[in-house]
Write a structure and sequence with these properties.
Cro/C1-type_HTH, Lambda_DNA-bd_dom_sf, Helix-turn-helix domain-containing protein
Length: 95
């Protein structure tokens, strides 16, 4: 099932609904994911200043995936640009 996400509140609602569908309490979910209960609550309320890495960690651990719907008229060029960016990133030496 797909949901259109256009606000932090909506992604928070999807995350909360998914956690509840798994019959997980917020504190238990936070503990198993490795984030604080405070952080998970902030995500579920649609806090606008959450850490991207932790947000994706929460989503990954709950089995949620994000997709971006690129308009057909620019999809091929966007794909090529993305491939170049990924390749460039992979070629950069790590610190």
């Amino acid at each position: 099932m797909q949901f259109q996400i256009d606000t932090p509140e909506k992604i928070g609602m999807v995350i909360r609904a998914s956690r509840k569908a798994m019959d997980m309490r917020q504190d238990d979910a936070a503990g198993s994911i490795g984030v604080s209960e405070n952080f998970l609550g902030k995500v579920e309320r649609g806090g606008e200043s959450v850490h991207w890495g932790k947000l994706f960690q929460v989503m990954r651990e709950l089995g949620l995936h994000v997709y971006v719907d690129v308009p057909d008229e620019i999809a091929e060029q966007a794909r090529q640009n993305l491939e170049r960016l990924i390749e460039k990133t992979e070629q950069q030496p790590t610190a």
